[in-house]
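Thread title: Can someone regenerate the structure for this chain?

I was given the following input by a collaborator and told the matching structure tokens would be attached. They weren't. Posting the sequence so someone can regenerate them.
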Amino acid sequence: MATKRIVHLRVYRGTEMNYSRDGKVKNVNQLVKLTYLSREWHNFLKHLLANGFCLVEVEKVFNEKGKEVKIPDNISAEVKEASHLEIKEQPLSESQKEVIELKKEIEGLKGNGADKIDHNTNIELSHYSLEGLEAKFPEIAKLKLTNVDDFVAKINELAEGSN
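Best answer:
Regenerated them for you:
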């Protein structure tokens, strides 16, 4: 027959532990009594972060007869593992990795002044390039466009009009 152990846990509320000058804990704390390996035990340990606890310690363990016993290593290890109150990072899927890479590329372009046009650079626009466009479309030289989107739209508009 399995023994029902009652575990007394000391739980501390807050986002971090705070101590007074003399070393006493300032966090609000309370004693929680749970039956080991019960459904309540598992749910309590599972939701420590959601309940606002920053630290959980095993204070005492009692056997089924109500006598205090030495704290078993497996109970303290389980509580210690559950009380690492950080959100565990899930591995990213391929699509999430792709989105992150695209965002980095966009940020890189924004940071490099991609919205400004360097008039000495060759920009490939479908089957057109800047070389010879000024001769073919003299209106472009007059416009002084600084936004890439406006520039591309104007070239496409002029290219469609010349065909």
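The first strand starts at residue 6 and ends at 13.
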